[in-house]
Amino acid sequence: MEPAIKLQPGVTKGDIRQKIWDYMEKNNLANFPRPVHHRIPNFKGAYDACNKIRNLDCYIKAREVKVDPDKPLEGVRLAALQARKTLLVPTPRLRKGLFNKIVPPPGAAKEIIRVCSTAQGVKDFSVPVQLDAKVHIDLVVVGSVAVSKNGWRIGKGEGFADLEYAMMVSMGSIDEKTVVVTTVHDCQLLDIPEELMDNHDLIVDYILTPTQVITTDCKRSKPQGIIWSKVDLEMMQKIPILKSFYCREKQEGKDVALKDERCIDEKELQKFSGERMPRKSANATRLKSDPFEKTGSCDKCEEETECETKAQSNATSRVTAVYMGNIPPSLRVSELKNILRDHNVAPLRLNWQGAQHRAFLDYKDEITAEAAVTSLAGLSVSGSIIRVELAKHQGDNRFRSQTNARVNRQSLT
Questions:
Q1: I want to staple 15 with a disulfide (CB 3.0 to 4.6 A). Which of 11, 70, 162, 221 is the partner?
Q2: Average pLDDT of every residue of the chain
């Protein structure tokens, strides 16, 4: 079958996306939501394509399945729930973690199972999965804007599917046996030039359309982990979970040099990293590699002492509090300390308010606090899911840190 859309030499990924979106709109090949531009199209016949997964041997054998939350993949999510497989979905835009697990209510009726497969069900019936959870994903199902029969895939341009896969590799949640499947309308099958594919792009093993099942036999390697040289500071700030992976891989001795060598002023860098910077002039500081490390050292002992004193005097203003709620009455403060140590998120100070079933954790800066929130996402104690988030009133945090005598504080040191 010849592709419905012909590509001209020199075409870009952006050109291909635009051609697909325009063609599907012009020919009325999509359902709600419309228009399809800047989306994974919810193509007509999506459920027919999704149902074909039930006959794939890799799906039948799979126990844990990760499916993107796109509307055209609703049928795959429903099939996984009906087959009682473990169903994982990415957290929205990776803001508060990597996965959520869909957990239907015990004895859920067919209609509730169907609701669980929808976007609303993902919100109402999912629980976060911690980054250190022992997860092994057998099958990954992603949405696509365009795909070729040899496995090249183009998404909507934000890179989340590629990044999610790279993070799963870093977590050890997937391996070379993990299969990747996509569903598309037949018009989304194109002859994508291989030169458009980069080493961070995710390729697919199976393509499901309303009319056919395609085995790509793609020999190209899937992403082998996070490629930090393609990550910049803006991405790090937009996707807090990346900071946790950054710190983890840095401790493992991996190359975590970021993409851009940017000129940012000392205040911006100090706000991002929360680490002591050498005293410089008002000129911009040139970032060479690691955004979490100072870029130079002081030339004189007096200057070094001045820098350290300045950093210490500003430490209070940088302190960021994390709120922990829904703490079960049976939990003791000593047990909470052990939990925090086990997750490598021991705070500077712990404000225990057991009678109110809550606690506040003080961290040296916002980035450390956000990493703690990510690490503790989905924490369950005595059957209770602990609510973990940045404290809403950070202004009170500085007051607490300056009035230790007026608060019942517990040290973790």
A1: 11
A2: 81
Which is it for strands 179-183 and 206-208: parallel, antiparallel or unpaired?
parallel
**Cα distance between residue 150 and residue 207, in whole Å:** 10
Q: Which of 263, 262, 245 is nearest to 254 (CA)?
A: 245
In a 3-state reduction of DSSP, which class is residue 251?
A: helix
Residue found under tokens 């100070």: 349
pTM of the full predicted structure? 0.65
Cβ atoms of 323 and 288 within 8 Å: the answer is no
For CA atoms 351, 352, 353, 357, give the dihedral sign.
positive
Q: Which residue has the higher pLDDT, 366 or 280?
A: 366
CA atoms within 13 A on the CB side of 111: 0
278's CB contacts (< 8 A; 6+ apart) are 294, 295, 296, 297, 298, 303, 304, 307
Location of structure tokens 């804007």:
145
- Classify burial at 150, counting beta carbons within 10 Å of its beta carbon; exposed 0-12, middle 13-18, buried 19 or more: middle
Count other C-beta atoms under 10 Å from residue 263's C-beta: 11
| pLDDT value at 144 more than 90 | yes
Q: CA of 194: how far to CAs of 77, 160, 223, in Å?
A: 31, 21, 16
| pLDDT tens digits, 148-162 | 999 999 999 888 888
Backbone angles phi, psi at 40, to 5 degrees: -80, 110
